[in-house]
TrEMBL record:
Pfam families: HATPase_c_3, HSP90. GO terms for molecular function: ATP binding; ATP hydrolysis activity; ATP-dependent protein folding chaperone; unfolded protein binding. PANTHER family: HEAT SHOCK PROTEIN 90 FAMILY MEMBER. PROSITE patterns: HSP90. InterPro entries: HATPase_C_sf (IPR036890), HATPase_dom (IPR003594), Heat_shock_protein_90_CS (IPR019805), HSP90_C (IPR037196), Hsp90_fam (IPR001404), Hsp90_N (IPR020575), Ribosomal_Su5_D2-typ_SF (IPR020568). The gene is htpG. GO terms for cellular component: cytoplasm. The keyword Nucleotide-binding applies. This is Chaperone protein HtpG. It is found in: Cytoplasm.
Amino acid sequence: MPTETLEFQVEARQLLQLMIHSVYSNKDVFLRELVSNASDALDKLRLAKLRDDALDADVSDLHIEIDIDRDARTLTVRDNGIGMSYDEVGQLIGTIANSGTAKFLQELREAKDAAGAEGLIGQFGVGFYSGFMVADEVTLVTRHAGESQGTRWTSRGEDTYTLEPVDDAPQGTSVTLHLKPADPENQLHDYTSPWKIREIIKRYSDFITWPIRMLPEGAGDSDETPEHETLNSMKALWARSREEVSDDEYHELYKHIAHDWRDPLETIRLQAEGTFEFQALLFLPAHAPHDLFTRDFTRGVQLYVRRVFIMDDCEALLPPYLRFVKGVVDAADLSLNVSREILQQDRHIEMMRRRLTKKVLSTVKDMMAKDQERYGTFWREFGTVLKEGLVTDPDNRDAILALASFASTHHDTEPTTLKSYVERMKDGQEDIYFLTGESRQSIENSPHMEAFRDRGIEVLLLTDPVDEVWADAVGEYEGKKLRSVAKGQIDLDAKDDDSSEGEREKQSEDFAGLLGWMKEQLDEDIKEVRLSSRLTVSPACVVSDANDLTPALENMYRAMGQ
Ligand code: ADP
Ligand code: MG
């Protein structure tokens, strides 16, 4: 097959331009990205071999190797992992499948100045392409485990890349960066300096569980096997005591497993001893991913068994409403061959899930007590997801209710907890009132609100589709009913004297003719017309029966195709 020259997809091209002209000052992170990819590739190969012993691949010395050539000004990161097939290279490297990146580019176009752009690059991360921050040409040679033919990919980061088959590619992948000309002004960014490489690896990739080796310069010149140096300590952070590990180290692990460039909001450690021993290191991200509510959002944490990576996205370890939690769980007593199907039914896994769920919820609770601002960020980003738990996890319902906060007529911007709502309830008010709708504004303009506003009764303003569902499922909080102000008859004046009752009856009689006529006219669409005391300004409003679906819920079910 001859060399193919292919065009980068539009988004990929934009991203590359950005990297080439990068204003991002922390260019060192390109190495973290390449090492992170190499480490993933080694994990994948180890696993593939475990699943299929017949796979033609050598797993006896899995490692990452960094090779510097000062004269040629190249830096090579090599792994003997899973590798990529010819088609995969085109798909994975030539296009941007990750839709988060599209969002990133969009925001970038909107960022007016260089400082804004820099902030964005720091937040999004661009994986493999970050090599173009420091190199004017990148060559990748790879061979997929079990295949005989390899592939060479080259690009100068402009509009095209080339692909060609190679016959003698070793197992795994090597990425060679042809570094940009040295900047005599800035020795700090000399990536041909072993000292510099050592420093970057120590800072960003120390916890990587595979050895990252560096060959001494000119090692390839003689026939003897060169003495290499291992740059990382390979210590699993979750197995080390809290005092031994710095926050920065935890954050780097988070960035590696979450493929996020930003620091996490919170780090959670759990060491479970006893009959079923496990260690967990979980992270609450600081930002909700854009695809959290899509069907193909990958959830779950990494599962290790005694320091050996077993699988990504192990969904059995956390309930769906905690799908944004990232991290590592290392279990002592599972089989290395454990499969997803087995995990779903395993009693121990079930126990672990319960412990982990409680731990995450109690961490958020602590955050709420100790750091309102952080809790506020958390709830803004993940509250909507967490509320799903009110419906799906009755065991933890009270714990989740205690963590939840809601917009309310009490304050324009500050949300309230149910506890504070109850503390503010008026004398004689028995229930907790809420109204659901598409936005705060549309709810506040609803005629249902009039009587409540007039009487100064607080109403929770719920705008997430899930609010309909949980409010119904939960029913009450601390003995107080949760009641939609749009449903059934709400008699706000029940505590007033009896005369109002008699008055209403009389009014009903007086207006019987009008009500009957209205009912006739609207017969197709309504069940009943009645006089109401809940309106003060609007002449009429539509309410649903206490047991009916509310309009938002109807919409939601319709959207789900039911
Ligand atoms: P991400 O790692 O977030 O998926 P990257 O841009 O870093 O994004 O890499 C894109 C994809 O290219 C990876 O998901 C992986 O499938 C593939 N890839 C990159 N580097 C390697 C490697 N060293 N070995 C095997 N596959 C790789
Ligand atoms: Mg990557």
